[in-house]
Amino acid sequence: MKYELDHIGVAVRNLDESVQFYQHILGGHLIDRYRSEAKGVESEIAIMEINGDRTELLAPTNNTTSPIARFIKQKGKGVHHIAYHVHELDEALETLQQQGIRTLEETLRTNKHGRRLIYLNPADTGGTIIEYCDYPNMKKHARP
Fold first, then answer.
1. What is the mean pLDDT of residues 29-41?
2. pTM for this structure?
3. I need a labelling partner for 40 at 20 to 30 A (CA). Which of 5, 65, 81, 107 fits?
4. Which residues, at least 6 apart from 125, have a Cβ–Cβ distance to it below 8 Å?
5. Which CATH number fits domain 3-134: 3.40.1190.20, 3.10.180.10, 3.40.50.740, 3.40.50.300?
């Protein structure tokens, strides 16, 4: 199985300030900004691109139920997850199961950009939140 870095997710408290930093200090470009109130997501997301690399800035929209709010409360703002693009998510999930690596089943979803994703259980990854994702309805390596 081939893995490629897709993006890094960063938990932030203030999305506007973070976008400004990524634009004015790092020279990034805002690709998209949207709000997701889906259960288990509850966040506003800004996708930033710097020299072809993507960072997702994640701000909680519900301080009670948002996993980003919980993350910030427990660990503070900063890197939330690392996402790896896999050729075919279902195949990657089968491989994980064979290797005894658990996923967080409730996180399996397709986002507004057509990216299918799931998070691996941090208890099986040394504590790092890792996302596996694919883009089944897009050409290879195509991303919004």
1. 89
2. 0.90
3. 5
4. 101
5. 3.10.180.10
